[in-house]
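Still learning. Any example?
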Amino acid sequence: MDKIQLKKTMALMGIFLAINIALKAQFDNVDFLRSAPADGAKFLQAYISPWTNAFGAGLSSGWYNTAKPHKLGGFDITTSINVGMVPSSEDQFDISKIGLSSAITATGMTSTISGPDKAGPAMSYKSGSYTLASFNAPPGTGWKMIPVPVAQVGIGLPLGTELKGRFIPKITIKDGDVSLWGVGLLHSITQYFPGDKLLPFDISLFGGYTKLEGNVPLNLKPDLSVTQNFTSPINPSTSFEDQNLNMEVTGLNLSAIASLNLPVVTFYGGLGYSKTKTAMVFEGNYPTPVLVTPALPAVPYAEYNNSGVKTGKDFPKMDIENFSGLRANIGIRLKLAVITIHADYTRAQYNIVSAGLGLSFR
């Protein structure tokens, strides 16, 4: 790996960590997809939603550390790490309450991806009274803090307005890839106050939108303990190598923010509305067992064959409306010449802790 690629990988590893490690390690054997596509998608949605919620919360944060926009032509370059925190109430879910079909036999509570690292209850995929596949619900990771590193620039525009931008071109990490872009606008309200130049505080309105796209490889192979009877063009050695989960995470932040500007220290806070959303789409071929019913007196049995191969189009698109509602944050920034250091805490459905470093001019 050359030095440039190494730097890119290190800079972006944190962004992709939550998704890539989870689905690469936890879903290296996605047994729950050995069922009807709709059931597999519902289980995945319930299992992974705490991380997508926390990731989306972090993605919507870190936009500002002062309510004072840059002067015309002024700019800053800022990096921050926003850590979305999964509440303990999201550690488990009830399998019987996520809308699985009657073909899935399973009851009880099981871990979400952020829950305890222990195997979940036994699950069975059936056709009538015949069991086609048996497996356990996957364990959790116990990992409740999802880091979202962000790098952005801000530039002063006319009329007390500042434009902010985030952008990361598509970068390949391990077997997946990730890209990100975002745009925000900060507009001063204080400029409309009489004597605004003498006031020690600033009030502004802010709106920001961020979108991350990622592609994560999956690994579901036929169960070797079950009869395989594939025919061309399906080859069990190569036909299931293209399994991927495409993910799109978006975050919206609309806030009124204020800051008290002292010579070195700035205290800032905001109150507003945030909304995040995750969309997931399957790609590739996935083997599922089917019931073979030979002529009597032979007994029906499970088999992997061409008719049981599902494609990404057979799975429903998963749209997770992560959360929407009020958010409030408070923070502090130190400015030493052109260097800024900031930290803040956001209270929302999924709380966020942020810290960052930047260079700011004018």
In short: Residues 57 and 84 are 6 Å apart (CA to CA). The chain has a mean pLDDT of 87.
